[in-house]
Amino acid sequence: MNNKSRFLHGQRIEPPAIDGNMSIVDLIDKTFNAYNAARFREACHLFAERMLADDVTVGMSLSGAMTPAGLGMAAIIPLIRAGFVDWIVSTGANLYHDTHFGIGLEMRRGLHNLDDRVLREEGVVRIYDIFFEYDVLLKTDSFFREIISAPEFQRAMSTAEFHYLAGKYVLERSRVLGLKDKSLVGAAHEVGVPIYTSSPGDSSIGMNVAAKALEGNKLQFDVNADVNETAAIVYGAKRSGQKSAILIIGGGSPKNFVLQTEPQIQEVLGLDEKGHDYYLQITDARPDTGGLSGATPAEAVTWGKVDPDRLPDAVVCYLDSTIALPLMTAYAMAKRKPRKVKDLYHQRAELVSSMKKAAESTGNLKNA
């Protein structure tokens, strides 16, 4: 055959030998050639080369026990400080365990195969192979009950506002203890990255808020505000000629919450939109079981969550997030200069107002 098939134009697989001097960029670009390694290489390229362009607003969803493993400090805080993540939807558990570090409490490496009855007797709690004292829970509970007794918490608010206010107190405790960048909630407060929780009652934070309500505390989570604010962030980006990217770590409820922003804009508010421009997911969930965690970006197209014209710019990488996220963070830090922090937290009201006016002008929303 004289003419080589069009399917044989890919880069030749001929990686260099790995040595101690190889950079993280060369390791991924030159030796991650096939299978899930190749998907991860594609994920790194999508994130660093397209999603981190200056005209892209990046939302992250976070599920699984990431912060107890130290990934808040190691990866997510560097990402938000570099302007690489602009808004976040997280499980409440990740934010509760994140707070341990910010108020000077310890999590330690352990073993996954010990007798849990013995650990219970000795007052040790485990998250797989992470160990900590039971007292860590009690002290963190006490911290949250104390701060939500303050006057500024005695009203309904979005979870973004709650985490912003809580972050101020975490930072104050960190400064007294001489700690720096131990808490994602604290760092997000400093740079104005809004953090939402899709199921605010489903965590120890929500449990303590509920307990205080029994005493007459007035704090309530305004889930309507959460839905409208997250949709407005996406709509604001697209309306201003920018693009919207979603970085999904794991799956679950946070994944759905970042993605439902587009159906809220299109289906419910009736505004002209096509879906997120970039979709990147790190997951170990299979698509064939029908669960949301494993649902593919192609399926998301049918819901209007992902722009069908941008489907080639969607990558699903089947890896453990605790391995993929640190590597991808290192890759992005090596490849991209920091972006200007968007400070979306302080733009929420303006963005919601703009989206509301747009829906009213089309007749899909009545004037209040």
Per CATH, the architecture of the domain at 41-94 and 157-172 and 180-199 and 221-361 is 3-Layer(aba) Sandwich
Low-confidence stretches: none
Share in helix: 40-55%
Secondary-structure element series = HHEHEHEHEEHEHHEHEHEHHEHEHH
Main-sheet strand order equals: 7-2-1-9-10-11
On the 0-100 scale, what is the average pLDDT? 93
Name of the top-level CATH class of the domain at 41-94 and 157-172 and 180-199 and 221-361: Alpha Beta
Going by CATH, the homologous superfamily of the domain at 41-94 and 157-172 and 180-199 and 221-361 would be Deoxyhypusine synthase
From the spread of the alpha carbons, the general shape counts as globular
Cα-based radius of gyration, to the nearest Å: 22 Å
And the CATH topology of the domain at 41-94 and 157-172 and 180-199 and 221-361? Deoxyhypusine Synthase
Distance between the termini: 71 Å
- Tell me the fraction of residues in β-strands, as a range: 5-15%
User: What does the largest sheet look like?
Assistant: 6 strands, parallel
